[in-house]
Amino acid sequence: NEGTADVPWYSKFSGTFAPYNNDQHPFLNWAIYREIDGRFEQLGYSGVKHAFWTINSNCTINCGNNHILWLGCEDVYGTGNNDSSGALGPRAEIEADTGYWESTCSFFDPGCIGSQTTGSNATDENRLVVYNDDLTDVNNTQMFIQAWYLIRDDVNIFNTMGYRTISPVDNGNSWSMNAGTTFTQGAALDNYVAPNTMGAMEASSTVETREGQFTVAVKVVDLGGGMYRYNYAIENYEFDPRFIAYHLQLNNSAILQDPVFADPDHNIGNDWQFIHNNGLLSVNGNASNEQDWGMLFSFSFTTNSPPEQGTIYLDAAHIPTIPANTTVSANTLIPQTPDLIFDNGFE
């Protein structure tokens, strides 16, 4: 616990306790990412592990209660603990921005009796699932695993997440992941473009709204011959209204080539679609594939416009409660728009 507050760590259905008068606990979730062909993609993500006990080692302060993570304390355990079917549940039940979850009538209590009667299926349900082909792709440059404790009323979500590089090893009937020795605090996306960067060819901007936070990162590659490849990665950390579309300016006369959209599910039927019209490039989603919290979507395209500083707009899939805005924005790099006097190609 590197923060300034103690963290409630009460197991689900165990009773009601201060400070929230419930069975509040953190929610551990994890995901795998890769860099490939200049893009940054999320390959898979887990459900949430409902924390239930902290060992409180190496504490600065330890008041003897293993249902509270005290200041300076560590909670270290094996990976099998995280994959316990009785502790794994779906992400959809969590209000990510606040860290609120209601145990009664949840996934674990379908009969609404106030106690746990079921869990995950001990195979793939609510576990991180990655396709074999993604692990063996020869174009993979780097791969990362990220873990994050979602904590109620957390004032700094980035000091409760961290990542390592990984190297997958195919053992025939199973896989092992050789992890890098360096654990880095923060989001894996930070390794792609450093936070708060606004350069000539790359940028990263994290936006905090009253409904949660998200990051937009972009790398632009000069392909030569006046052509540029734009690679965007957008991670929704805890923006509960979800995203369903992105928009940025792209002049009507600009070339649009080789668009690529990437999400974790491998279902090409629900991929977001590129529309270039009225001076805008829109990447439009659908109700079957909204970008929920903890998910990273990426998109890329080639055009003949060099980059400049500008704005990307993101449409919320659902109307936020506070404020009632349906679109949020981030500063980033976008294709340059020529002066209007030259817009039709004539001087």
Question: So what's the overall shape?
Answer: globular
Beta fraction: 35-45%
Structural class: mainly beta
Tell me about the largest β-sheet.
8 strands, antiparallel
- What's the N-to-C terminus distance? 63 Å
Q: Strand tally, please?
A: 21
**Contiguous runs where pLDDT drops below 50 for at least 5 residues:** none
What percent of residues adopt helix (DSSP H or I)? under 10%
Compute the number of helices: 3
Rg for CA atoms: 22 Å
Report the mean per-residue pLDDT as an integer: 93
H/E element order = EEEEEHEHEEEEHEEEEEEEEEEE
User: How many domains?
Assistant: 2
Give a structural overview.
It is built from three helices and 21 strands. The termini are far apart. A hairpin with a 2-residue loop joins strand 2 (27-36) and strand 3. The chain has two domains: 7-185, no CATH class; 193-342, Immunoglobulin-like (Sandwich), CATH 2.60.40. It has 347 residues and is mainly beta. The mean pLDDT is 93. Strands 2, 3, 4, 6, 7, 8, 9 and 10 form an eight-stranded antiparallel sheet that branches. Strands 11-12-13-14-19-16 form a six-stranded antiparallel sheet. The longest helix has 5 residues, at 132-136. Helices cover 4% and strands 40% of the residues.
